[in-house]
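Translate structure to sequence.
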């Protein structure tokens, strides 16, 4: 049976109530053909919500090395390049951005062992998240983390449909790879910024999975 994440349980309960109410109204007030169509739509509503908020069990794979950075989200790599980043020691960082589609798992994960230095929520717009400028213009949550390889930044970005980001860690918390980081309701985009000493293991266009995929490493290849 598909588990539902605690973040989505309220939505699931609301979906059940709306589903029952909608089917009753369709049955009583619509002609037979339209009634069947309407009832079918309301019947599948709770299943769709359950799918959106599914909660898979994931563990870091045994062949992952200590110096590897795991992927924080399911989706498609849309950016993999060095960029300016003023809060990094040399003013630059590797940016790897993952676009999450509606049907991807919406739970995000801690990419590396360390300590959460800060969790900052910034209000903003809700542009399509695959747009490069959405990272700073859209609503987002930034997680600065201390790690054995220096400071890293993970940014969860709300998109056109996603309207709320739920952090699942707090400032000062010690975390391990694969721990739950945050939940973007109905998908969107995750950016990770790594020191330039990292070596990316993915490229633009790659399909990746949270926890299971390795996106970068600090070991010599």
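Result:
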């Amino acid at each position: 049976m598909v588990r539902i994440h605690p973040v989505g349980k309220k939505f699931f309960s609301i979906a059940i109530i709306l589903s029952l109410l909608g089917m009753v109204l369709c049955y009583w007030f619509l002609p037979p053909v339209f009634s069947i169509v309407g009832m079918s739509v309301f019947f599948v509503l709770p299943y769709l919500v359950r799918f959106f908020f599914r909660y898979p069990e994931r563990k870091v794979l045994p062949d992952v090395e200590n110096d590897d950075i795991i992927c924080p989200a399911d989706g498609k790599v849309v950016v993999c390049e060095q960029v300016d980043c003023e809060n990094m020691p040399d003013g630059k960082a590797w940016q790897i951005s993952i676009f999450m589609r509606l049907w991807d798992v919406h739970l995000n994960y801690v990419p590396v062992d360390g300590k959460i230095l800060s969790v900052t929520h910034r209000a903003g717009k809700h542009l399509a998240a695959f747009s490069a400028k959405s990272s700073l213009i859209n609503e987002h949550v930034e997680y600065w983390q201390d790690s054995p390889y220096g400071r890293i930044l993970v940014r969860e970005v709300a998109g056109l449909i996603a309207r709320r980001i739920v952090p699942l860690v707090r400032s000062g918390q010690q975390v391990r790879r694969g721990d739950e980081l945050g939940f973007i309701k109905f998908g969107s985009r995750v950016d990770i910024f790594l020191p330039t000493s990292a070596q990316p293991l993915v490229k633009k266009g790659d399909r990746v999975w949270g926890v299971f995929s390795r996106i970068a490493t600090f070991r010599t290849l």
